[in-house]
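Progress report, Aim 2. The chain analyzed during this reporting quarter is listed below.
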Amino acid sequence: MSKYATKASDNMFCKARYEAAKFNDRLSSREGAAEEMALDRSRVARIELGSIVPYPEEVLLMADCYHAPELRPAYCREMCPLGKDTPKVDNLDLDRITVRAQASFRRITEAKELLLDITEDGVITDDERGDLDSILKTLDEVNEITQSLKIWVEKNMK
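Predicted structure tokens for the chain:
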């Protein structure tokens, strides 16, 4: 029997377990992972095979057990109907996050000035709506970077 599950190899939960198994040998099997999290082995298998959607509590367990905080926003974005608008959080190295943050800080200063110009008269006209969309896009970008940094800190500093 193969050490790696081929049918589940693209599943984010399976990938996270395999990555965590590098540091905790018990996570190299679904049975060991299930015991670590006090879940049924067949439930872990069905989650990794994509035949069921895990409960939010199970995602929290896996994120903690596998030391994979990126599972939380990925679950919200990809599986939870309430989180479909959650921005994609990239699992980047700190240097990439820092460069993106610096560029974003420059754009946020420009967005702040533009927002003041748009709202100073208390009315948003049709010709200002495009600028407002641009501001919202910049704020979404800052949010993505913030979430990426939070995940990096959780993964590397705790």
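The mean pLDDT is 90. Residues 129-157 form the longest helix (29 residues). These observations will guide the mutagenesis work planned for the next reporting period.
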